[in-house]
Amino acid sequence: MDYQALYSIVKVIAIAFVMGVGTIAPAVSLGKAVVQAIESTARQPEAAGSIRTLLLMGAALIEAIAIYCLLIALILFYA
Fold it and tell me: CB of 76 within 8 A of CB of 15?
């Protein structure tokens, strides 16, 4: 097996690892955030507006992690 083929195999494995870990962690975090927001809204319905706003801001930050992982995977793919 030549080094170019080995390099391609390792590159694909690294991309798969980055995308796997980079999407599982934000998904779990976002799920926990939604559960906490639902519980908070159930406890204090009058604060639903502020809870929703904070949830959306937090979700955007959590999803940024997945977007950064996609960016790293694309850099690895085209490098």
Answer: yes
For residues 47 and 36, give the distance between their C-alpha atoms in angstroms, rounded to a whole number. 13
For 39, the token pair is 């519980």
Homologous superfamily in CATH for domain 3-78? F1F0 ATP synthase subunit C (1.20.20.10)
Domain ranges of the chain: 3-78
Residue 63, pLDDT score: 93
**Confidence (pTM):** 0.76
Q: What is the pLDDT of residue 15?
A: 94
Indicate if the pLDDT at residue 51 is higher than 80: yes
- Residue 47 φ/ψ, nearest 5 degrees: -100, 15
The two structure tokens encoding residue 15: 């991309």
